[in-house]
Write a structure and sequence with these properties.
Rossmann fold; nine-stranded mixed sheet; eight-stranded mixed sheet; 2 domains; alpha+beta
Length: about 290
């Protein structure tokens, strides 16, 4: 048995490889997040060589997005998740009730299954720690982070690319799943993560939040400040979590409420052009 420890947004988690050295090579995007061993972890995930018995699996929710899907349910009151890619089962994750322990069976130690298990466990194990895993693209500019939200296909990655192209000094922080954490002093920080979708951007960096922008495709570039209730709704659709579990939903609600009431949030109707990036930057950067 060998354990590898990672730290993302200040939270440490451990992966038990059970002597399978190949997993270290597969998880190359996690290397910037490797940290020293500690007992203070938010969860431990064990890589199992034995298939998980699914005879008593009770499915609750199916989530699908661009050829990927997750079946969420439970086995004897223990949370369980199936990860599919283009209809093929790539991994099964079985968790303890508090999400602090997990076991993943991923045939041939495939990256898709293990990566999804780590991401799901991270989102659930930190949901009561004022921490949220976002579906967002985020850039840094003048030492602050600017997050772009919206449904799949809205153009989050495109808008980040426009900032990178036209706003000098911009850098990409993460292109799919950054982490936002509210610290003890009330400040809101944005962190890079090992999960960045199709873009290879796995940076162990952090910045105070500058602003959050909800994008919508439109024939003109128009930006306006969101009201708190609008901001809260935008956050709900952009944060990963198990909302049908009341214990987790309470933690997500607290985080979303604090962000919605304390972070500058905007709505940008936009075209995929230079003007959109400049209008957005000039408005949201203080």
């Amino acid at each position: 048995m060998k354990e590898i420890y990672y730290k993302v947004a200040g939270h440490v988690f451990a992966l038990e490889t059970v002597g399978n050295e190949s997993i270290e090579l597969d998880l190359w995007q996690y290397e910037p997040f490797v940290t020293d061993p500690t007992d203070d972890v938010v969860f431990r995930l064990k890589l199992s060589s034995t298939p998980i018995d699914m005879d008593n699996f009770n499915m609750e929710v199916v989530q699908e997005d661009e050829g990927q899907s997750i079946n969420a349910g439970h086995i004897d009151e223990h949370p369980c998740f199936q990860f599919f890619l283009h209809g093929k089962l790539k991994g099964v994750l079985l968790c303890s009730k508090d999400y602090q322990q997990g076991e993943i069976y991923a045939e041939d130690c495939n990256l898709f299954g293990v990566n999804n298990a780590l991401m799901v466990m991270y989102a659930l194990a930190t949901s009561n720690k004022l921490t949220a895993l976002f579906h967002s693209s985020v850039v840094s500019y003048r030492d602050r982070a600017y997050m772009f939200l919206g449904p799949s296909g809205t153009g989050k990655s495109t808008h980040s690319k426009l900032w990178l192209q036209y706003i000098e000094g911009t850098e990409l922080v993460n292109d799919d799943n950054p982490v936002v954490r509210i610290l003890n002093d009330g400040t809101i920080w944005v962190y890079g993560s090992p999960w960045s979708g199709k873009t290879h951007c796995y940076r162990n960096v952090s910045y105070p939040l500058g602003a959050i922008v909800l994008l919508a495709q439109a024939p003109a570039n128009i930006i306006r400040r969101l009201k708190p209730i609008e901001a809260y709704a935008a956050l709900m659709m952009s944060i990963s979590g198990k909302r049908w579990d009341s214990r987790l939903a309470e933690g997500l609600h607290e985080t979303e409420n604090l962000i919605a009431t304390h972070a500058p949030m905007w709505h940008l109707d936009c075209l995929p052009d230079e003007e959109a990036a400049r209008v957005c930057c000039e408005t949201v950067v203080s």
